[in-house]
Amino acid sequence: MDIRKAAVLGAGTMGAGIAAHLSNAGIPTLLLDIAPRELTPDEEKKGLTLPGYKSGVTSLAFSSDEKFLASGGKDGIVRIFVTGEATGATIPKNGETVLALTFSREGRKLTTAYGDGPKSAKVLLSEIITAKDGDTLLAATVDAVHVWRKQGKSMEVVGTFSRSTEPITALALSHDSRFALSCGGDNLIRLWDVSTLKQVRVFAAAQHVIRSLAFSSDGSHAVSGDDGSEVRLWKIEP
């Protein structure tokens, strides 16, 4: 029998032991458990908190490479978890129940359906990027890019940047995580300093909607691809 991957439900004594044996055998293993809905009296006395959904989880989705897990609830909150991290990054509340979540094949885009039912559903496309070392995470929503950084074992939100009045259509993070590029419906490419969350430069507008952005490995150049089938090379001079 060829076992390539395994998942264990329940992280108690038995489940954790089984997961440990599988991992020791060289089998990639995912250990899942149900988060408690409330704290014990002893935990409350210690001042601990329990972040998460209080009105029920309605949808879950893994990216194809299992790097991300997205969850949605009745409260309209979507959380993006980096596999193996203790807590997730939260996409701002949309106000309606999360009906469905799905990742694109390459794991870079997350589609979320909100609403009170299938007939009233609204669809939101978010683009998700993590730094090579996993310490920085960017997620683009309708008109803003949200930034999280790793603090200890959790991802903490540090701020938001975007000046586009139209939905974000493309996002890229430099290999050293110093700079980010974003583009919205105005077709302007904006260069951002990730540490200060400030705009550094704006590149000329393209004639067509830009769908993809990428940095060169040394960060000196970037490329963009648009609906007009054009690929443009840009020189980055922050």
Describe the structure.
This protein is mainly beta. It folds into 2 domains: about 55-160; about 165-238, Thrombin, subunit H. The chain has 2 helices and 19 strands. The strands form 5 sheets. It has a 6-stranded antiparallel beta sheet, with no helix packed on it. A 4-stranded antiparallel beta sheet has the order 3-4-5-6, with no helix packed on it. A hairpin with a 5-residue loop joins strand 9 (about 120-130) and strand 10 (about 135-140). The longest helix is centred in the first third of the chain and has 12 residues, at about 15-25. The mean pLDDT is about 75.
* DSSP helix fraction: under 10%
Number of strands: 19
The main pleated sheet reads as: 6 strands, antiparallel
Q: Work out the strand percent.
A: over 45%
